[in-house]
């Protein structure tokens, strides 16, 4: 980008200089009516660096100065109509052509000294001058390039490398003790992009530190709750035994209060047992087997139906009768039972009749199971933390652990439990089980053994 245009301009200046010198030399002859001495003519042409000079004035072409030409003219260049591209092309051609040729050059005389001035000259001196100029230009360019590179390196190091090293150092220091709020990075970068990255990192570190502190407090609280629940469950079990004896009392007031007391104690024991179960180690990997989904669904429905009791809930199934799925039968029973029980309790709480539908199907990716009801829908508070333990309860007295455990069991299968919709017309949950499971420690029980 620098060398080629520079050489083209140098070549054009070289030729224009020869034209000007030739025009000045021709003035010695034009100012006198007599011829000049051969020695003087030879000296004028040598000073101009040309072999002859032709000047066209008033449409008359006149050979002003001349000397013997060592060879024929091979090329002609008209400087009056040259462009940037042609100048670069001719300069490259002259630079790499090592033969000493004779060329003709046409140009515009200076000071309106004629119409056209024409000279012939050798190419070797011009090529030597171009090589020397090119070497000087390369040397100067190299010096400026080195200086520019050093300045650019220092600038990039100051603006980019140093802040990035600082960012990495902060990340390393923070990873050693993420609970220490003093190690959270303070944005200081002057480059906008790096400053945005530092601000994002600081925000993430702040949230992570707060989460770690909260989890630590929750872990300590969980240990205390587990101990309290264990002791409380033993106390409530004893109270339940005495409450059972109260039911055999003949006192009408005791008989009326005993069922309520038993229900309250039963709910308290269930809360303790659920809390203790959730606080234990994570659920074991699913033991996979193939079984009929329709049979499992009927077991769930029979468990929720209470013969002899008036109920406003109807159960409907919508699935192929011979649909075979793969999964842990016991875990899937717990999931479906939890979803169906929640739906039944929601419908019964309204006092109006309703329907619970369990559907299932299969596609290329795996199996899906749908549980939908015509209940009142989930409240807004429950939707926000639906699958979070102790926060996603949908009814009074609930722990919020049912859906959290159900989602964990489905994730253990490599699938997912989604809330498809919930509004005043009802709620729909959908379970997806992939056909190919990549779960560490999962075993599949086949016919007569394990695969």
TrEMBL record:
It is an enzyme of class 2 (transferase). PROSITE patterns: HIS_KIN (PS50109). The keyword Thylakoid does not apply. GO terms for molecular function: ATP binding; phosphorelay sensor kinase activity. Its EC number is 2.7.13.3. It comes from the Bacteria. It catalyses: ATP + protein L-histidine = ADP + protein N-phospho-L-histidine. InterPro entries: HATPase_C_sf, HATPase_dom, His_kinase_dom, HisK_dim/P_dom, HisK_dim/P_sf, Sig_transdc_His_kin-like_C. Keywords: ATP-binding, Kinase, Membrane, Nucleotide-binding, Phosphoprotein, Transferase, Transmembrane, Transmembrane helix, Two-component regulatory system. Pfam families: HATPase_c, HisKA. The chain crosses the membrane at residues 133-156. The keyword Kinase applies. This is histidine kinase.
């Amino acid at each position: 980008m620098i060398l080629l245009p520079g050489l083209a301009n140098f070549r054009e200046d070289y030729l224009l200089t020869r034209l000007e010198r030739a025009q000045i030399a021709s003035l010695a002859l034009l100012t006198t009516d007599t011829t000049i001495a051969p020695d003087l003519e030879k000296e004028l042409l040598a000073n101009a660096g040309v072999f002859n000079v032709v000047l066209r004035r008033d449409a008359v072409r006149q050979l002003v100065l001349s000397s013997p030409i060592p060879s024929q003219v091979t090329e002609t260049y008209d400087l009056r109509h040259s462009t940037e591209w042609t100048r670069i092309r001719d300069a490259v051609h002259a630079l790499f052509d090592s033969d000493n040729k004779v060329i003709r050059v046409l140009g515009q005389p200076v000071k309106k000294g004629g119409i056209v001035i024409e000279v012939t000259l050798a190419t070797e001196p011009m090529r030597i001058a171009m090589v020397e100029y090119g070497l000087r230009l390369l040397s100067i360019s190299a010096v400026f390039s080195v200086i520019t590179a050093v300045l650019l390196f220092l600038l990039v190091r100051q603006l980019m490398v140093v802040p990035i090293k600082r960012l990495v150092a902060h990340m390393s220091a923070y990873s050693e003790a993420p609970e220490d709020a003093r190690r959270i990075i303070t944005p200081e970068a002057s480059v906008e992009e790096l400053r945005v990255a530092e601000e994002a990192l600081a925000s993430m570190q702040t949230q992570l530190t707060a989460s770690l502190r909260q989890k630590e407090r929750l872990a300590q609280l969980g240990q205390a709750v587990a101990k309290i629940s264990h002791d409380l469950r033993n106390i409530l079990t004893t109270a339940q035994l005495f409450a059972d004896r109260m039911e055999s009392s003949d006192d009408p007031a005791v008989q009326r209060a005993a069922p309520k007391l038993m229900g309250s104690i039963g709910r308290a024991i269930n809360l303790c047992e659920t809390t203790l179960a959730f606080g234990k180690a994570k659920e074991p990997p699913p033991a996979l087997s193939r079984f009929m989904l329709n049979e499992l669904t009927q077991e769930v429905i029979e468990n929720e139906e209470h013969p002899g009791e008036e109920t406003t809930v109807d159960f409907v199934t919508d699935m192929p009768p011979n649909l075979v799925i793969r999964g842990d039968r016991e875990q899937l029973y717990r999931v479906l039972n939890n979803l169906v029980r929640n739906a039944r309790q929601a419908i019964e709480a309204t006092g109006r009749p309703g329907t619970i539908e369990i559907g299932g199907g299969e596609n290329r990716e795996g199996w899906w199971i749908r549980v939908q009801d015509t209940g009142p829908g989930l409240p807004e508070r429950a939707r926000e933390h639906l699958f979070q333990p102790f926060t996603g309860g949908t009814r009074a007295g609930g722990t919020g652990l049912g859906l959290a455990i159900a989602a964990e069991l489905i994730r253990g299968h490599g699938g997912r439990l989604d809330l498809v919709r919930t509004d005043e017309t009802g709620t729909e949950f959908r379970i997806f089980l992939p056909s190919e499971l990549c779960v560490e420690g999962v075993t599949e029980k086949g016919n007569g053994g394990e695969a």
